[in-house]
Automatic annotation (TrEMBL):
The chain crosses the membrane at residues 32-51. This is LysM peptidoglycan-binding domain-containing protein. Signal peptide: none annotated. It comes from Nocardioides zhouii. Keywords: Membrane, Transmembrane, Transmembrane helix. Residues 63-112 form the LysM domain.
């Protein structure tokens, strides 16, 4: 008589040993504080690269123009722009006066750049 033995096609996987490490409230607070300290230290080190100069900057030369009835920002900028870059001058006027739109009111005073050639 002969015997037949069958081996399983796959072996069951052994489960890894489960650890029961749990943090207490004080442990969680310690981990949080250490993480916060690392983040603040990284921010401090990276912010150290921001450098200013010891000298004051030179302001751009400007003059004040009072808006007349019917004046537009395009018209004022085209009068000032000697090189034909009207849009660039419009953007500069908007930046100098912190304008949110291109609408102007009669009597409004605008700071405009003095362009030199």
């Amino acid at each position: 008589m002969s015997t037949l033995s069958l081996a399983p096609a796959f072996a069951p996987l052994a489960r890894p040993a489960r650890t029961t490490v749990r943090l207490t409230r004080r442990g969680r607070l310690t981990v949080f504080m250490l993480s916060l300290l690392v983040a603040l230290t990284a921010a401090f080190v990276l912010a150290g690269g921001a450098v200013g100069t010891g000298e004051a900057g030179q302001p751009a030369p400007t003059e004040i123009v009072q808006v007349a009835p019917g004046d537009t920002l395009w018209g004022i900028a085209s009068d000032i722009a000697t090189d034909g870059d009207v849009r660039g001058v419009m953007n500069e006027i908007e930046r100098l006066n912190a304008l949110e739109s291109t609408g102007l009111a009669a009597g409004q005073k605008l700071r405009v750049p003095v362009l030199t050639d």
